[in-house]
């Protein structure tokens, strides 16, 4: 049934799409979506997603990493890679979200490319969606070189709220909201409570009586009715009568709501929020009839939905992708989805397992293209899409691209038309790869298991890390030692020479790699060498002499992998790795009760003993 | 006359910056403002130099990408001056300057008016130097970006075409790096050994070639002196610094290293030279020298040239800082409006990292900007001007329209009152004009112009007679201004004034009663929804009804509690610690338990607040910030808060009210016994 519908849709679209198939020079026309045309495009996007088998996406962020060592590297375990990605996702802002729902039939790739311009607008002045964000000057310069239009982005970008922010803002948007029905009385009341309730009850009673009176007899002249209003503190809420009761604590709110259940037949309580987040007042609204009450509740609900929709903004699209359950293809799983999680779902959890489970509840099927690529062509570098594409030329895998959604109404030759091409290329690359792999995704409606395996593949091993990306060799993280505080700048090879002469532990095979200009990592291929070296550096007295002693005297420091791990976990993201490691070592004795899961706490206690010995 | 950079109105948002640079049609009556981007920067700088030299004072204004990196970093009621400085420092370090208005004012005795030259510089911290500089990042506050957008700020002009800069410190570091690099290139060749066969063959080949070339040179042979070996690599004879040389092209860097080695080993009179020219494309030469001294000379010349090229590169990367250097070296009177943050930005962007304390900042700023005057101070501190402001707001725009209505409306009416006002003309690109429409507010160039106008008018009210003002007289040293010069609002809302005159003792001028801060306790991470009043009640129950003077919210997660005296501060902290180490019922019954509920509540004295503010981390919520900075270790309890048990017990004992305070005292007295009972 589903394929049939798709076919029908496609045929109708290809007629209307007409000449907008491809642009010359191999560029596709991508629909640019901004604040002004967002609402009108939403339905079109929904159909596009529903009619496609996959969704490709690509993000344009204001930065990627602040310092060389913040980059995810081969020595990182999945947890550390996640922490690095998390740090970046929380700081930088997504400015463009390119989305390309696509389906693959044989060699025919049908794409629906869109490019959304985003900008976080703090419309409620509450620091949501974000209070501030970081920009990497070099990244912005590079974007400018590509012709990025920052004015369009900031003036016309679509705002959004994450799922968590939306539920938090419900109370803060200033609109009165319907009070939740009260369950059983919360707790025995004090004398003060009883007095308070009694006072309010009589006030409500009087007011309600007057409402009943005024609705029955209409003969009152204006003066009398307005006088009555003045005396009773009665106001109008829309066309209905209401009474606002100021409160000064949540306890009072509770008491009033409990009391108002006595009048549940014709009085509906609303909560008025104060700026600081609590409840400022309870408003009792008088209903003239049962139907009136239903109508009122419906109106209120509609109002709330409309308001939420407005605040949700672009997240509506993310929700569409999520609810469609279509497999999502991205170029870089970790950095893209940490960003998406942080901006559109909620705050990122502190460890990678929680992240995976939280993410998979929203996006159950995620395809990591770089992982997929590695299977087919292990040496290719995915970060450059055109290069990755041409590296696959040796395979025969023809893919015809057809753009199924209409291009934007803007003239095709305009420069910003080119934004959002990456998502199309990702879908194209994916199509090529899956053709090569001969995996027939076409027949299966739910290609989930394969693709999920791809995504979760990188969580396979925790303690072993891959050392050099090319010519890889697995090594236990215990065999890595970080050294810093070298007297002068050296290249990796000169440093290796220097080390070789410094201590007999280096008589055996070892490797050196610079992580940034301040710090290098030494890989020992003999299991216990790292310990020997660490204890040698950290117990100066035991050093019998030689150049290692001189180096230590000149400021050389060394630490094991645990320290590096802790630096990431504690969030010491200094510009130089050396500074971060120094800070971590300093903090080791004061900060052991960090917010980590139990298994890691035992690690930290081990560490504490370790560092006491040092 | 060049006037192609005069933009008409605030450009349309949707159009691209590039296309706008070409437009030259000036709409009639628009406020004349010189927009400066990197394309016309050098040229404008030359003009600006003469304008600043001739100026009586220079007004400045800055537009930034944000002001506070977290809500609690805003100026708060309980901010001591040192904390306030830390907050300003944080802001200046984190946010970028995107627009810099500079407007020199000169009194023209011929026309009896001031001539102003408003410049609007687009600034962007682009990285111009090729070597690995520290990754530059800046923060954007979303509300500030929205604010800029509201006033049609042109982000494309800023990012695409903004002028870059280096601070003095960055310049020093850059030249140091270039020095290091040149040293490196000398050392590098020493540990190269010829092992591979290809290297050996190559070195032999080159040896032969160089020998041929050298003998051809020396014996004046008619053979073609160049070397061409058929492949991509080639060497042709050229002259390098008046000496015959071979220009090497198409060799790999490894081959060049081998060549270097060959030359050092076998040719005493041939020297290898590597140069970088402006466009950073490198060239390699083999140069013939006829003596040892000539060789030394050559090496020195080559080194000097490398240095010159590097210096030129750094010089061009300095970019916008040349304007700041100009203002600083001319020692002109700088005029700003509520400009402490502006000055802090100028310091951190163009001088170096901001000093850690306000005192050090004051000591240092004087060397760079000896005379700064803040028009906001002038309008608020001078009683006569203050009265003239008629109690209206002293914001830039309202002060401008109140003090200088004739300029704002550009009316040259014969109204006698307006006639008394200071006349101000605007000159841009040698075109002088005295009629215009109001310019765009919150555009740095126009804001600087307004600030200057306010200052000129205020001076006239103070009794300056510009008409008899001699050229040589320095406005900055005029005694009428003496009271106001070099005093800035550290915090406008609190009225704290910072005195930049180093000769004065600063402490006297801080409007501070230090004792007050000793009475403050900071509490964070208390149960949400607890309001200031409830917190006050809780503490009053525990420490006496008059113990707390006031409670003030920092944000939703933290409060300042002002106690009556400092003794109560330590009492409170001690009591809190005591309660937290106690698992018995006292913990639940005690009035403070309402605040401590949840087991995460932190509390600390005012010094901790300062420590938290000095951290370069900025979490949005104060409680998160306090946890991250790690002040928690001072007061935080054991993480084993048995919350579930606690609430259970609490439900059993809800009936206890105020009257139970006697009971609590009894509990406190028997605390040890209770503990023992429990452990048994």
TrEMBL record, chain B:
<dbReference type="GO" id="GO:0003723">
    <property type="term" value="F:RNA binding"/>
</dbReference>
<protein>
    <submittedName>
        <fullName>Uncharacterized protein</fullName>
    </submittedName>
</protein>
<keyword id="KW-0175">Coiled coil</keyword>
<dbReference type="GO" id="GO:0009651">
    <property type="term" value="P:response to salt stress"/>
</dbReference>
<dbReference type="GO" id="GO:0000175">
    <property type="term" value="F:3'-5'-RNA exonuclease activity"/>
</dbReference>
<dbReference type="InterPro" id="IPR012337">
    <property type="entry name" value="RNaseH-like_sf"/>
</dbReference>
<feature type="coiled-coil region">
    <location>
        <begin position="288"/>
        <end position="315"/>
    </location>
</feature>
<dbReference type="Pfam" id="PF04857">
    <property type="entry name" value="CAF1"/>
</dbReference>
<dbReference type="GO" id="GO:0009737">
    <property type="term" value="P:response to abscisic acid"/>
</dbReference>
<dbReference type="InterPro" id="IPR006941">
    <property type="entry name" value="RNase_CAF1"/>
</dbReference>
<dbReference type="InterPro" id="IPR051181">
    <property type="entry name" value="CAF1_poly(A)_ribonucleases"/>
</dbReference>
<dbReference type="GO" id="GO:0009751">
    <property type="term" value="P:response to salicylic acid"/>
</dbReference>
<dbReference type="GO" id="GO:0005739">
    <property type="term" value="C:mitochondrion"/>
</dbReference>
<dbReference type="InterPro" id="IPR036397">
    <property type="entry name" value="RNaseH_sf"/>
</dbReference>
<comment type="similarity">
    <text>Belongs to the CAF1 family.</text>
</comment>
């Amino acid at each position: 049934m589903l394929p049939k519908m798709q076919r029908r849709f496609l045929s109708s679209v290809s007629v209307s799409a007409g000449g907008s198939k491809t642009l010359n020079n191999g560029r596709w026309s991508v629909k640019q979506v901004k604040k002004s045309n967002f609402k009108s495009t939403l339905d079109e996007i929904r159909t596009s997603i529903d009619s496609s088998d996959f969704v490709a996406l690509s993000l344009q962020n204001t930065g990627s990493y602040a310092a060389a060592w913040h980059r995810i590297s081969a020595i990182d375990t999945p947890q550390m890679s996640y922490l690095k990605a998390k740090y970046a996702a929380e700081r930088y802002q997504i400015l463009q979200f390119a989305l390309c729902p696509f389906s693959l039939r044989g060699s025919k790739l049908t794409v629906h490319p869109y490019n959304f311009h985003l900008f976080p607008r703090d419309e409620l002045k509450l620091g949501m969606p974000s209070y501030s964000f970081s920009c990497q000057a070099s990244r912005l310069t590079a974007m400018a070189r590509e012709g990025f239009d920052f004015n369009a982005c900031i003036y016309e970008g679509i705002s959004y709220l994450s799922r968590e922010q939306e539920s938090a803002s419900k109370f803060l948007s200033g609109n009165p909201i319907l009070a939740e029905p009260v369950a059983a009385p919360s707790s025995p009341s004090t004398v003060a409570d009883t007095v308070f309730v009694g006072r309010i009850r009589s006030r409500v009673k009087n007011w309600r009586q007057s409402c009943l009176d005024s609705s029955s007899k209409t003969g009152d002249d204006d003066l009398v009715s307005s006088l009555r209003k003045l005396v009773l503190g009665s106001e109008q809420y829309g066309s209905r009568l209401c009474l606002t009761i100021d409160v000064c604590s949540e306890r009072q709110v509770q008491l009033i709501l409990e009391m108002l259940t006595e009048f549940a037949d014709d009085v509906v309580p609303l909560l008025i929020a104060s700026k600081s987040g609590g409840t400022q007042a309870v408003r009792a609204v008088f209903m003239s009839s049962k139907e009136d009450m239903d109508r009122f509740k419906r109106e209120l609900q509609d109002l709330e939905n409309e308001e939420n929709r407005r605040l949700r903004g672009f997240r509506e699209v993310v929700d569409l992708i999520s609810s469609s359950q279509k497999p999502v293809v991205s170029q870089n799983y970790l950095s893209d989805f940490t960003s998406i999680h942080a901006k559109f779902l909620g705050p990122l959890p502190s460890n990678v397992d929680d992240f995976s489970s939280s993410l998979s509840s929203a996006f159950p099927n995620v395809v990591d293209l770089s992982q997929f690529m590695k299977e087919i062509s292990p040496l290719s570098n995915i970060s450059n899409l055109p290069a990755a594409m041409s590296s696959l030329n040796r395979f025969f895998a023809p893919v015809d691209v057809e753009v199924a959604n209409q291009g934007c109404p803007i003239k095709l030759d305009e420069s910003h038309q080119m934004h959002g091409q990456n998502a199309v290329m990702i879908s194209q690359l994916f199509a090529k790869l899956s053709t090569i792999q001969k995996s027939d995704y076409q027949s299966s409606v739910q290609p989930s298991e394969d693709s999920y395996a791809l995504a979760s593949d990188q969580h396979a091993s925790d303690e072993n890390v891959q050392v050099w990306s090319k010519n890889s060799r697995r090594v236990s993280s215990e065999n890595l030692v970080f050294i810093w505080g070298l007297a002068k700048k050296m290249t990796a090879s000169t440093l290796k020479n220097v080390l070789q002469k410094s201590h007999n532990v280096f008589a055996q095979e070892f490797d050196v790699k610079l992580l940034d200009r301040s710090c290098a990592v030494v890989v020992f291929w003999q299991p216990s060498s790292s310990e020997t070296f660490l204890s040698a550096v950290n117990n100066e007295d035991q050093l019998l002499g030689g150049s290692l002693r001189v180096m230590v005297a000149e400021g050389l420091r060394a630490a094991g992998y645990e320290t590096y791990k802790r630096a990431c976990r504690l969030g010491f993201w200094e510009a130089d790795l050396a500074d971060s490691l120094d800070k971590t070592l300093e903090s080791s004795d004061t900060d052991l009760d960090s917010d980590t899961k139990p298994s890691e706490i035992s690690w930290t206690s081990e560490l504490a003993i370790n560092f006491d010995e040092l | 006359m060049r006037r192609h950079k005069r933009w008409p109105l605030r450009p349309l948002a949707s159009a691209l910056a590039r296309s706008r640079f070409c437009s030259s049609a000036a709409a009639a009556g628009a406020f004349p403002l010189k927009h400066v981007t990197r394309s016309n920067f050098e040229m404008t700088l030359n003009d600006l130099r003469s304008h600043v030299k001739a100026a009586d004072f220079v007004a400045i204004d800055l537009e930034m990408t944000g002001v506070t990196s977290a809500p609690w970093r805003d100026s708060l009621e309980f901010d001591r001056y040192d904390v306030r400085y830390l907050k300003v420092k944080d802001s200046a370090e984190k946010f970028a300057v995107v627009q810099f208005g500079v407007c020199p004012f000169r009194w023209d005795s011929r026309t009896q008016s001031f001539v102003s030259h408003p410049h609007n510089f687009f600034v962007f911290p682009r990285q111009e130097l090729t070597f690995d500089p520290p990754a530059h990042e800046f923060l954007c506050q979303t509300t500030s970006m929205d604010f800029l957008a509201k006033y049609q700020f042109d982000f494309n002009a800023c990012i695409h075409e903004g002028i870059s800069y280096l601070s003095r410190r960055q310049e020093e570091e850059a030249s140091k790096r270039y020095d290091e690099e040149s040293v490196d290139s000398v050392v590098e060749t020493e540990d190269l050994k010829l092992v591979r066969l290809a290297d050996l063959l190559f070195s032999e080949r080159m040896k032969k070639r160089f020998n041929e070339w050298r003998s051809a040179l020396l014996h004046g042979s008619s053979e073609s002196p160049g070397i061409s070996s058929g492949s991509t690599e080639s060497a042709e004879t050229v002259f390098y610094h008046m000496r015959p040389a071979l220009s090497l092209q198409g060799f790999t860097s490894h081959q060049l290293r081998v060549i270097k080695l060959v030359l050092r080993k076998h040719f005493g009179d041939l020297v290898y030279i590597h140069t970088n020219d402006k466009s950073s494309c490198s060239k390699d030469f083999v140069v013939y020298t006829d003596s040892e001294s000539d060789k030394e000379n050559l090496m020195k010349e080559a080194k000097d040239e490398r240095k010159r090229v590097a210096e030129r590169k750094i010089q061009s990367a300095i970019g916008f800082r040349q304007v700041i250097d100009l203002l600083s070296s001319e020692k002109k009177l700088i005029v700003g409006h509520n400009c402490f943050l502006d000055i802090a930005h100028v310091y951190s962007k163009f001088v170096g990292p901001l000093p850690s304390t306000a005192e050090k900042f004051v000591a240092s700023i004087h060397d760079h900007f000896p005379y700064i005057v803040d028009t906001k101070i002038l309008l608020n501190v001078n009683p006569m001007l203050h009265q003239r402001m008629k109690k209206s707001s002293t914001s830039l725009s309202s002060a401008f329209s109140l003090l200088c209505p004739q300029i704002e409306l550009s009316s040259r009416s014969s109204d006698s009152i307006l006639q008394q006002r200071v006349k101000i003309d605007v000159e841009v690109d040698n075109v002088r004009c005295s009629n215009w429409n109001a310019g765009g507010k919150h555009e740095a160039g126009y804001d600087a112009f307004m600030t200057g106008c306010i200052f000129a008018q205020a001076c006239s009210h103070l009794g300056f007679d510009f008409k008899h003002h001699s050229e040589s007289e320095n406005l900055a040293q005029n005694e009428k201004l003496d009271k106001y010069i070099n005093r800035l609002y550290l915090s406008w809302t609190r009225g704290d004034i910072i005195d930049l005159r180093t000769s004065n003792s600063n402490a006297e001028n801080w409007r501070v009663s230090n004792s007050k801060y000793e009475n403050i306790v900071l509490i964070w991470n208390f149960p949400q929804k607890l309001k200031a009043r409830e917190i006050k009640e809780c503490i009053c129950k525990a420490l006496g009804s008059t113990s707390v003077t006031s409670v003030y919210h920092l944000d939703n997660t933290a409060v300042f509690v002002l106690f009556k005296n400092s003794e109560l501060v330590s009492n409170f902290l001690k009591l809190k610690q005591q309660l937290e180490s106690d698992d018995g019922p006292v913990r639940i019954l005690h009035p403070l338990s309402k605040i401590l509920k949840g087991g995460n509540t932190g509390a600390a004295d005012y010094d901790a607040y300062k420590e938290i503010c000095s951290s370069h981390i900025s979490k949005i919520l104060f409680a998160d910030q306090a946890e991250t900075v790690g002040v928690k270790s001072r007061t935080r309890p054991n993480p084993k808060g048995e919350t579930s048990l606690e609430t259970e017990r609490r439900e059993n004992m809800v009936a206890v009210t105020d009257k139970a305070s006697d009971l609590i005292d009894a509990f406190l007295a028997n605390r040890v016994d209770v503990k023992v009972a429990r452990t048994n």
